[in-house]
Amino acid sequence: MKYQNTAKDNRQECTICPRYCKLKVNQKGFCKAYKNINGRIEPLYYGKLSSMQIDPIEKKPLYHFYPNTKTLSIGALGCNLACKFCQNYSISQTFEVPNSNYIPPQAICDLAKKYNCESVSFTYNEPVVFIDYVIDTAKILKENNIKTILVSSGYLNQKPREDLFRYIDACNIDLKGFNEKFYNKNCLCNLYPIIDTIKYIKNNTNAHLEITTLLIEGENDLDDDIKNEVYWIIENIGKDVPLHFLAFFPSYKMKDKKQTSIDIIRKAIKIAKDVGLLYVYGGNIDDQEISTTFCHNCKKPIITRRNLSIKDSINIDNEGKCVFCNTQIPGVFEKIGF
Ligand code: SF4
Ligand code: SF4
To answer: What whole-number distance in Å separates Cα of residue 264 and Cα of residue 216?
Structure first.
């Protein structure tokens, strides 16, 4: 694994993410996905996948990138964050290593083709902790004209970030709340590297970007936090980046919390739209209104969704314009109609 330095006491320092774990021989990193083996840090789960499934791209969620297409979603094990609300904790935090077979990067490409998936998504656990495999696989996918999608918390350092995003076509970054204390207390990390990643994607890559915030009642749903997040997004990324507010389900170390109600999701959407964001959605709740794309100019429904599937025809032309008023819709829609 190339992201490492030799630190004091002959420990090896992993430089993938801001934790900079310094590992003695036989010691694992915070993420449990890297280990010092005989003086070199090596990935433990290269090609050892925990999960694989064909999803609608809307499930990532990506609503403005090749809508109504299929994505082959894959995940491995471990995570460099430790979110108390993790919805995938059985593969990110408290996992037992399954006896899974090694799946080489070329096999992922072959599977995507076999099942007519227009893209492959690196998702479920945190792709940063299997970055070597993500990059090797994404290189092959791009050579085969299959789109590459990253679903990530964005907690990584500059060099791996540059290497990774060279091969990524679209991403959804989890912005878990716009509050340093929330990140410190509930994810055991800081907010600023994540903000850096989002700015890097916007300013230094061509990757399509959407942002997700999982709302937990009483934890990160304060009006001011939502306003601050949206002001920051508009100022730094732009008002046309799609933002998804997802409902939380009691999980992992937050089993005592309530499931997020649709009223809280609707309230957050209203705040974000009032502040000026053009495309704001709700998710993890079956409701057509909060899942549908309305043209920001004429306000007519241009992609009607219900429960992650698209209803009726998509009212965006092959140049990405609203068929009702000819306004350019932010996103990548060129395959529609083909
Ligand atoms: S990727 Fe894992 S081992 Fe490397 S610094 Fe981050 S938490 Fe530590
Ligand atoms: S970053 Fe994602 S996978 Fe990792 S602990 Fe947090 S919610 Fe779970």
So the answer is: 9
Tell me, what DSSP letter sits at residue 330? S
Comparing 90-99, 224-233, 316-325, the range with the smallest average pLDDT is 90-99
Place of tokens 């057509």: 288
Is the CB of 189 inside a 6 Å radius of any atom of ligand 1?
A: no
Would you say how long the chain is, in residues?
338
Ligand 2 site, residue 92, Cβ cutoff 6 A: yes
Tell me, rounded to whole angstroms, the distance of Cα 210 from its chain centroid.
8
Global pTM value? 0.96
Question: Does residue 284 share a domain with residue 201?
Answer: yes
Alpha-carbon distance of 65 to 212, in angstroms, equals: 15
Report the C-alpha gap between 71 and 97 in whole angstroms: 25
Q: Which residues span the domain enclosing 135?
A: 51-300
Band (249; pLDDT cuts 50, 70, 90) = very high
Nearest CA to ligand 1 atom 3: 29
